[in-house]
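Recap from last week: sequence in, structure out.
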Amino acid sequence: MGGAIIRGYAAALQATGEGKDVAARAEILVFDTDEAKTAALSTLANVYAARDLQELADGAEIIIIAVKPGAFDTLTPQIADCVKWSDSAMQPVFVSIAAGISIGYLRGVFGQESAIIRVMPNTPAMVGAGMTAIARGANVPDDAYAEVCRIFESFGEVAAVDDSQMDAVTGISGSSPAYAYMYMQALIECGVENGLNEAEAKLLAAQATLGAAKMVLEGGDDPEQLRINVCSPGGTTIEAVRVLEEQGFMDTVKAAMNAAAAKSKQMTR
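Predicted structure tokens:
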């Protein structure tokens, strides 16, 4: 996910014509213990490899912590120590993308007066179609919050939520690309079984799914009405929908979303 954010933001900066000589706000410092990941990302325009966490802390106004939740207990005290000894006069804003890591937990690590933003992005950020929910901590300055929103808006949509809503967000937008991929995989496999080649089936399934999503976002009707509009009496679509309803399609999707949200809540600290 960290790579998706960096690639999406770097691409957005490049698209606006900002080069490697732009102001510091448009530069991206990256550090990872996996040197191969850092090296690959540093080939992108506007991305520079930091030698260590201290160099990152010295140069960053916004620090996005993009690691698995299990790494936070080890990593965040190291970051806090680096910030403490940083030459920078400005206290950075900390941004966490991890499921289950609350703003309260991060304030316990970085200090009760620290500026913390919690976000839940998703991997379509890599293609400029990300969805990011942002929860703002109490001590985040307006200009810093606006800058973080700008970063995530550069590769998708942003929605402001409360920290307490992040479990639901995780199930709906953070994890749901995986559900959509499974849905499309089923369509592709069935298309191949019915005589299409895989490339044809992939295009048909993916473009239809994309188009349906755009209808929800850009049309005036809700998903239920859009489904009704497609279902001509006695036609093919209504027959397919009948089978989906008999098989409990919507209940299965809801159960999956609730399972993801429950796991996020279980992980929360």
